[in-house]
Amino acid sequence: MANNIPFQPMGKTVLVSLPTINTANTVAINADSPCCQVRIHNGSANDVYLALSQNSTVAVIPVAGTPSYGTILRGNTIAIFTCPQAATGTLTPTLTISAISAGVGSIYVTPGEGF
Asked: Which pLDDT does position 91 carry in this prediction?
């Protein structure tokens, strides 16, 4: 359950590298204890499109008239996303984050709780 407290990290930060333009990179995320949020820092100037899922859904850059899994995170910003609790609290990583960008860059993902 999300808390009304400042973000509390509950696992290791994962670097998701985006070394190739317009190519998605999908990485498993796991927490040290059950939690239902992740803090994501877009460390590049480019917009990044994200897909958080339990089934390795691949992020796609949306185009007009074609809906896709790709929630935007603007360049050089931080956001906290809520995800299924079971996904980040298991021994086997079942939460995946997929990221894609029209430029090269990196995002940093930390499981935890809070705003």
From this structure: 57
Tokens 């007009």 found at = 64
Q: Which residues of the chain have a pLDDT value below 50?
A: none
**Which tokens belong to 106?**
């990196």
Residue 97, CB half-sphere, CA atoms under 13 Å: how many? 30
Q: Cβ atoms within 10 A of the Cβ of 113, count? A: 26
The b/e string for 67-93 (b: 16+ C-beta within 10 A; e otherwise) is eebbeebeeeeeeeeebebebbbeeee
Q: How far apart are CA 85 and CA 82, in angstroms?
A: 9
Superfamily of domain 8-113: Cucumovirus coat protein, subunit A (2.60.120.530)
How long is the chain? Answer: 115
pTM greater than 0.85: yes
